Amino acid sequence: MNRVYNFSAGPSMLPLPVLEKAASELVCYGDSGMSVMEMSHRSPAYEAIIQKAEADFRKVMNIPDNYKVLFLQGGASTQFAAIPLNLMKTGKADYILSGQFSTKAQKEAAKYGDAKIVASSKDKNFSEIPQTTRADFRPDADYVHICYNNTIYGTKFNYIPDTGDIPLVADLSSCIMSEPVDVTKFGVIYAGAQKNMAPAGLTVVIVREDLLGNARPETPSMLDWQLMADNDSMYNTPPCYSIYVAGLVYEWILSIGGLEEMKKMNEKKANLLYDYLDSQDYYIAPVSKESRSMMNVTFVTGNEELDKKFPKEAEKAGLMNLKGHRSVGGMRASIYNAMPYEGVEALVAFMKDFAEKNPK
Ligand SMILES: *Cc1c(COP(=O)(O)O)cnc(C)c1O
Questions:
Q1: 175 Cα to the center of ligand 1, angstroms
Q2: Which of 220, 233, 319, 322 could cysteine-pair with 311, CB 3.0–4.6 Å?
Q3: Residues flanking ligand 1, CB < 6 Å
Q4: What is the pLDDT of residues 58-67, one digit of tens each?
Q5: Ligand 1 atom with minimal separation from the 78 CA
């Protein structure tokens, strides 16, 4: 079996020890005599799985007791609607636009109320993170929304906006568990799991308890965070197998030393790639240095033909999915937690080789 280095933005690589553990338990979990895929979500065996997953997730992220953890479905995109439906009391919310997902989130919220764009880097082609101060936010806004790491453009917030008493709501889909974050700085953190946590199908929401209970009357039950919290994410059938794999990922992170250690490993990988990009002039990194993402690294050659050739040639070398998002072109290397250092070394070696063989 030859595993490739998969630079996909999501679904993306999972840690090999997690896949191996899942494989070893695939047909028969513990002494249950069945696969986790076949289990009733109300069975004692599954209840133990989901409870341990939540406890370990709380440990990994250092989540305080006054926050609820919800294991939901529908992807981060469903939360774009759930957020206004659960949080808009005055009908006002402030959005910072830093890329496509925050733009989608704002558009969705605008269906339910006054979703004001208070800052945007659209005029800079989202190559940097907009800077804000507290004065940018409306004092009567119900929340401020940001997308913390912009998967498509390869940027990340290099500061946490000061919103005063206004709850900060953040999409962490593509950077969750890549480094420690101070959960208390946020009212809500949400993430689709398929980037850095689990197979597709699971969406996690971390919500401060005092923000629950404000869902609008027309909110679908499945989007009502209070209802989901009251039912321990078991109002209906949860994405059982994805939660189980997420649990294995949490165990893996704890086993290597938690998020402090994870951050060191991720910095080492990102530095290797960015240092190379900064040391030459064949490839161009379009993102401003202060806004660089540690998870999604974008670059171009400046020549469309070469940009097309690069990912194709890379695949022949076992480096997969390096094509940039269809809306921005160029290349993107997603180097999430599960990407080994050796994968980034192989990428840099390939980049050098490609530059030599394809003069501009
Ligand atoms: C992938 C992604 C989304 C969309 O997630 P789905 O789970 O496909 O809905 C939203 N936000 C960010 C930051 C993402 O990376």
A1: 11
A2: 322
A3: 10, 75-77, 101, 147, 151, 171, 173-174, 192, 195
A4: 999 999 999 9
A5: 9
